[in-house]
Amino acid sequence: xxxxxxxTDSNAYLSPRLAQRLNVHVLPHTIHLPQGAFKExxxxxxxxxxxxxxEAKGDFMPRAVGPSQDSFGELYGRLLKxxxxxxxxxxxxxxxxxxxxxxxxxxxxxxxCTIEVLDSFSTTIGLGYLVxxxxxxxxxxxxxxxxxxxxxxxxxxxxxxFLTKHLPYLERDGRISPAQSFLGSMLGIMPLLQIEDxxxxxxxxxxxxxxxxxxxxxxxxxxGRLQKAAVLQNGFAKExxxxxxxxxxxxxxxxxxLLSCNPSLAxxxxxxxxxxxxxxxxx
Length: 283
Prior knowledge:
The protein is α/β, with parallel strands linked by helices. The protein contains 11 helices and 13 strands.
């Protein structure tokens, strides 16, 4: 029996080389900017996105559109020639319509192919961790049911915490009220956020970036052991380094990946944000 095919979207933040090595099929999000529409991971890198945002004029707010139903249908059709089992694992349905489009495309293949579409309830590197786990299991010959079981078992152990400066982005997405956005912006308040059950949830507020770094460190240091972890930022390079130094002292010998926020996450957090993604060690 052919091995399980793994499908995801560009929010998973897999480099083309890693996706190819793991045999993961990635569909890009389309990022809409004043300069045009770009395919994340194809003709738009995080560095490109940050540059274009800085060059943009006015109050334009970027947005991301997930892969279309037709894109999923075309990819599933190609994979049907190689296998009859597909695991399609995607960014949280609270942040994108990607899962809905994948499920709609799946209906065309009922009876011809088993396609399991999973909502990761996560984003960026958190989704990437799940995809990599599924891909390694598929390469080892594990069944579709085993791959799904592994992914679902890891989901409760992924945690994402962020600090952001730009409240209008949270207001646009309905996470805070217009009044909270206006007053917070006037007073220079920055919210600390968590991705909980797939949605962006405000936790508390701070007045300075240093206070935010202290809080992010406190959240992460509560974990006894880490399996994987990454620090992501746009516009917080100095704070990223300070946070990394503290984390390395707390978890000596543990590698922390340093990355920029990918565009399909940055459209929700704004152009300046810093966060930590943790995959808690499962005993």
